[in-house]
Amino acid sequence: MDNNGSILYAARRGITLPQLKENGVIPSQSQLKLLQLYDLIRVEDDRITTAFPVVGPEVMGPLREKIQLAAAGLAHRMIAEVRGIREELQRRGHPGHDYAVVFGHAVDGLLWEQLRAADMVPTTELTLKRPLWNGAFWAIHPPIPAGAGVNELPGEASTLIMIWTESTREALWEVAHSEATQNLLNNPTRQSKIPVLETDRSDALHLHSTTIAEIIAETIRVSPQAQELLADFPDATPQECTLIVAHELIWAIMEALVTAGHLEPLAEQGKAARKNLNEHLLIRVSG
Asked: Which of 40, 173, 199, 267 has its CA 20 to 30 A from that of 276?
């Protein structure tokens, strides 16, 4: 099923099975059924249509210019909160973890809680129709260069938040599946190398992160600039538009904060990334 991508791209505006075969793409019936199961395609008679937004450079080029402008303004409004996070981490003896907290807890964590609470992004709750996985798919070209992401590993007493890049993905996978990590999550306060954050407003890291998430969510919800961005996406629901724009926006915000010197970038390359792998990590404890 390695040609799933070819099927989805060819079907972005609808295509018949004979037309697919003319283009050298020959899907099996089981393959099409699986793509239908995950709501990746719609099939009507012999016509297949990709069931999620596919956005190319003709849209993304001008849109990203607008997103960078919006991100610069948001980054400026967040400076005091980012400074508060850096100062608190310095006080705790974790000066290299500011990117992990701002990205892993605030903009790629609490922000989604804010948007879900406002019913602005698709739900991820399992349903009878989607019993295995429920989320949203979209395809963007060109991709974000050197984009980062967040994975969470729940444990008995805490959750490990991992900020991955292409250079650290495999190393973090090894960390996540180690016995030492499981022991760590059972007793997170018995170590001092990774900051522990409590989801309670008495925790300064959480308090500043919550304010950052509120600033971004409110901007997406009500600002004319954000509404203009959301209107630029064709063939997407309002919730899908918000999901796509928010992802693009948070990457641009992080870049703006790093460029302006308000955050230290993560070590991303080879030995430097592995040496500083702890800086990609954060432990969250429910308050």
From this structure: 199
Nearest to 274 by CA among 178, 182, 165, 180: 165
Enumerate residues 6+ apart whose C-beta is below 8 A from 261. none
73 CB-near residues (< 8 Å, 6+ apart): 225
Cis peptide before 142, with omega less than 30 degrees from 0? yes
CB 266 within 8 A of CB 147: no
Tens digits of per-residue pLDDT, 76-86? 999 999 999 99
For 23-66, the pLDDT digits (tens) are 899 999 999 999 998 889 999 988 999 998 988 888 899 999 99
Q: What is the largest CA-CA distance in the chain?
A: 65
CA gap 69, 63 in Å, rounded: 10
Strand partners, 197: 284
pLDDT single digits (tens) 100-118: 999 999 999 999 999 999 9
Instruction: Please state, as a whole number, how many other Cβ atoms lie within 10 Å of the Cβ of residue 35.
Output: 22
Cα–Cα distance, 224 to 262 (Å, whole number): 27
- For 88-131, the three-class secondary structure string (H helix, E strand, C coil) is HHHHHCCCCCHHHHHHHHHHHHHHHHHHHHCCCCCCCCCCCCCC
Q: 18 burial class (0-12, 13-18, 19+ CB within 10 angstroms)? A: exposed
Per residue in 123-141, pLDDT (tens digit) is: 888 777 777 677 788 888 8
Cα 174 from chain centre: 21
Residue 263 tokens, joined: 């955050």
pTM metric for this prediction:
0.89
